[in-house]
Amino acid sequence: MSDIDEVFTKLGFGKMQFIILFCCFLMQIWMTNEQLGFGVVIAGASCEMEIHDRRLAWLLAANFSAQMISCFIWGELADLYGRRRVIGFASIVAIIFSLISALMPEYWSFMAVRTVCGFFIVASVVSLSTYLSEFTKVSLRPRVLTIMGYSLGVSMIYVPSLGGALLSMRMEPSGWRILLLCNQLPGIIGTTLLIFLPESPKYYLSIDDQEKAMKVMERVCRMNKGKDVTLKSLGVESLTQARLRPPNEERGQCHETKVLMVKYGKVMWFFFFIFFTLTGLGFALPIWMMRIRVLTSTFGDRNTICEHMEHISAQPRGNKDCHLTYEQMKDPLIHGCVVLCLFIATSVFLIWLSRRAVIIAFVCVSILGCVALNFMEHPTLILISFFAIIDPLICSVRLAGSLLIDFVPTHLRGKAFALITMIGRSGVLITSVYVGYTLSHSCYVTFNTFIVVLIVCGMLVYWLPTHFKHSSFTN
């Protein structure tokens, strides 16, 4: 029997992997449009939907609560029925509900439909990285997942660029509704492409389906090496992989979750807090950054963010301009460029540094950003401080995910990713509600509490098991 990772090394990173990477890249753009890009949609919809700070907090809380509740279900289904099938079905349903949400006439129906959308979109969040990584040899996995992360920067440029053009226009239907429709295009293309791609061969091995695993690998072989090359010609008669489920092991949801939390319990608890922090702050704060910048854009005097927020009520403020301009989209557009550049820089850092070292360095940068918000008064320096908090954490999520994939065997990865996604979404939920209720009343407490949380996160990354100290690029 040939180890499947050794076979992937023989086949190289070829045409099949590039197609799968392109598909996952499009899907990740769509998911980012739906989550981080949603802040631009909300900025445009705030007047028409009467969305003030507390309504925004509960809109985000409802959406991410649905994600938190459903992600373990999707993780179970991904391990049971396969990554590709779950991603495809859930993405189609999520896109349909996103399109419906663009037609909703008022806040409460809009929130209800967006909550249903959140229930389904998290299936792709749980399974997409796993699907891509299981077609990639171990030594390339962190770099490939980081390249897929470039899509976050592309999305964060795509949405504000469209938003600047659409949200400034006085038309029916409203610009933000058209923007929400346009945000679905990468998902529609990516889901269509996914239909023609194979299921993960490692998933087939995990359910002991040798025949289907060989068929997928034969297809990869012919795509990468040419039609004249077969697995047999490379000396591959059958496949296996490390840490397969023992044939006599009991199967079932409760048993496998118990195995995950008992056998890998200590590190899983470390990952829970790490993902709670990285995802919670990295994905909740961009929406609040956009809102804060829009709310404070009318102030002429230079004060810190917290001094400005003392004069802004969390409740509706009466008449305001519902039509945003390209000038107001400039900040998120710059933000997207910074995120894209930082992901590219991360790919370079990983050539020389371990993933743990990069994550710890990024957490330290975020701590400095939180400290800087206490006294920065110049608008550009305030913007840079926000970027320093948010962007390193967004990049760190990918690196932490690749560590988890290396740590957990194939038949438990869906559950492991579901659990850390659930914890991450709870981090987004708690951060959103926390900022919504404290920002106008105790702003300094809001950002300085994050410093303590980030310090603990950095310490836990440092204390991860010693085999994570080594870079996986040495193979």
UniProtKB/TrEMBL annotation:
Cell compartment(s), UniProt: Membrane
Entry keyword set: Membrane, Transmembrane, Transmembrane helix, Transport
Its membrane topology: Multi-pass membrane protein
An annotated Gene Ontology molecular function: transmembrane transporter activity
Domain of life according to the entry: Eukaryota
Any one annotated GO CC term: membrane
Record-linked SUPFAM superfamilies: MFS general substrate transporter
Stored InterPro entries: MFS_dom (IPR020846), MFS_sugar_transport-like (IPR005828), MFS_trans_sf (IPR036259)
Family of the protein in this entry: Belongs to the major facilitator superfamily.
Domain Major facilitator superfamily (MFS) profile: 1-469
Principal cellular location given in the protein's record: membrane
Species whose genome carries this gene: Drosophila yakuba
Protein name according to UniProt: Uncharacterized protein, isoform B
Transmembrane annotation, as ranges: 12-31, 86-104, 110-132, 144-166, 178-197, 267-289, 333-353, 358-376, 382-405, 417-439, 445-464
